[in-house]
Amino acid sequence: MLRLKYFGAVAEKTKVQEENIPFSNSSLQELVDALEQKYDLASLSYSIAVNQKLVQDKNSYMLISNDVVALLPPFAGG
């Protein structure tokens, strides 16, 4: 099982703040592709964190069962 958390515009678009989905052995990119198709997220800008750590290379990051994946709004500097 994977736990997904949505913040900002992504949460507004999905109409949920979090959900659990069955785990399938896949890369983070495969998950993101499925979510973008399911919720039409391609027009949004967001960062992705897995277990509270930002991930830059979605293609090579392999998910494991019980990961928490967060889709975060763009960060503003200060």
Automatic annotation (TrEMBL):
Pfam annotation, one family: ThiS
InterPro entries reported for this sequence: Beta-grasp_dom_sf, Mopterin_synth/thiamin_S_b, ThiS/MoaD-like
Source species, domain of life: Bacteria
Protein name: MoaD/ThiS family protein
Provenance organism: Flavobacterium zubiriense
